[in-house]
Specification:
14 helices, Prot-tyrosine_phosphatase-like, five-stranded mixed beta sheet, alpha/beta, Tyr/Ser_Pase_IphP-type
């Protein structure tokens, strides 16, 4: 564990279909690094992580900037996904001088909530437009080495959705057991339960958004069916490896990715 992070883990040790397991010290995952304590910063500096891949949008990064150790350099790579997801709702909000602002705001929120997809559908939408970003992550992992701190830590805000889909793609490409891939994804909900999840719910309800089961799952849930739907979508298109190649990953990079991830 790293102090200040609830959803941090090494993806190494994931069982492979043909026996064996993925390599430790190559690919890590977590939520945003904005809450790292001094002790957490020291612990991060002591790892073999050298690359931080951030799937958050510019707005998200501005709201909660990552904290990184200053004792050694880290390469930060921004790979924003879901650009406009938060600003889209804000753009529907009425102007402050609208005499019917309160009613208009309530109507805008209700309309936005009614259009929210289920988590699995959200992941499919993410995959449909995000192949280049996911391939870029794969390229970073493929380029890592054992000679210097160059392991990759991938994160978004919660470390469960964009990060969850990304890690599932990487593990699936490496030949990981599908049940193990799903179990890793699903474990994020338990890691985020408690203070973190309660804080997210409070932020949403403070905006006047009703905390429906769909919204609560979008905020804090990691149901197995959601990632299974995402992986089924890639299966229908040739599998995770073919999907990454559709985003620009070359044959040699794909081979290097598998070589890095498989122990």
């Amino acid at each position: 564990m790293i102090e200040g992070l609830q959803n941090f883990r090494d993806t190494g040790g994931t069982p492979l279909d043909g026996g064996g397991a993925t390599r430790s010290g190559v690919l890590y995952r977590s939520e945003a690094l904005s809450a790292l304590t001094p002790g957490g910063l020291d612990a991060l500096a002591a790892t073999d992580i050298g690359v931080i891949a951030d799937f958050r949008t510019e707005v998200e990064r501005g709201m909660a900037a990552d904290r990184l150790p200053d004792s050694r350099p880290f390469r930060v790579v921004d790979l924003p996904l879901l650009e406009g997801a938060l600003t889209g709702m804000a753009q529907q909000a009425p102007k402050a001088d609208d005499p019917n602002a309160a009613d208009a705001a309530a109507a805008a929120i209700a309309a936005a909530v009614a259009q929210l997809p289920g988590l699995g559908d959200l992941y499919v939408s993410m995959l449909a437009g995000g192949a280049a970003s996911f391939a870029a992550l794969a390229r970073l992992i493929a380029a890592s080495t054992d000679d210097a701190p160059s392991a990759v830590l991938v994160h978004c805000t919660a470390g469960k959705d964009r990060t969850g889909v990304a890690v599932a793609l990487m593990l699936d490409t490496a030949g990981a057991d599908r049940d193990a891939v799903v179990a890793d994804y699903a474990s994020s909900a338990a890691h985020l339960a408690g203070a973190w999840a309660d804080r997210m719910r409070a932020m949403v309800t403070a905006m006047g958004v009703p905390l429906t089961p769909t919204i609560d799952t979008l905020l804090t849930g990691t149901p197995a069916a959601a990632i299974e739907q995402a992986l089924a979508w890639t299966d229908e298109r040739g599998g995770a490896a073919a999907y990454l190649q559709s985003g620009g990953l070359t044959d040699s990079e794909l081979e290097a990715l598998r070589a890095r991830l498989v122990a």
